[in-house]
Amino acid sequence: MSLPLPAHRPRRLRRTPALRALTREVTLAPAHLIHPMFVHEQEGDTPVATMPGVMRHSVASAVESARTALALGIRSVILFGIPDAKDALGGGAYDEGGVIQRATRAIKAALPELTVIADTCLCEYTDHGHCGPLCEVAGGQWTVDNDPTLELLARTAVSQARAGADVVAPSAMMDGQVAAIRAGLDAAGFGHVPVMSYAVKYASAYYGPFRDAAGSTPSVGDRASYQMDPAGGYREALREARLDVAEGADYLMVKPALAYLDVLKLLRDEFDLPLVTYNVSGEYALVKAAAQLGFMDERRTVLETLTGMRRAGADAIITYHALDAARWLAESR
Q: Catalytic residue numbers?
């Protein structure tokens, strides 16, 4: 019996690397990556046990890591502070001499062409690990007191802008935080500083290694009363994003990335603002652990994962793989 031959042969366009490159729709380059750094107030660097290859940097070391990123073609870094002292109100976040403020000044002095993004939150600075001052609610439960937190977030953003941050990135998931920060920046003469909103941020188990790195695990309760429910649908995601757009957000972010690529695509189709996603600590740690055990090819896995985030609609990706990915991309040219 003679079978009919295929009329269409898509494999023709996949025969060689050059043919595959000719029809490739999604690009991944170092300029799409944002290099995240933890900065502490101590002199030396310390490794983060749950995130192999990631360090808690001194201010001086953060400058050198930023220099390495820029040399690799990465044009943006995002900074997370780890203060020596913490308090109930997270005062270190808006201290003009705080660790992120000092790191920002140092990086901008050394590398003025690099974009410095400041994470604008209080969780690394509070002694209870939550994203703002706490209040007691019915049943003896504790949660973040939303409206007083807005003032502290605005103060934090202004202090970061004053230190030279090019972008502020509120991640506390407080109602009205973008509007409060935008008003604070404008009133202080920083109307030119954009707001990168963690608009759609889920209460995720994937944040575990970050909390180890930053010492921000909540001492009471959890963040489920203000971060989004992973089982929430598209309506909630769209509502959160639309509110932030209305309040003046310049960028939108989806966090985490891997389990929420459908949400990332949803926002890409709905909004024309620049869209960022965060390839978070747990996603990073999973790949690192599997690679160390010989279960996966780290390079191929990382580049495929980041390409998938770009395909889903991300204009930029915050990733702890940034330096390695940039090196691998340079090698593949």
A: 201, 255
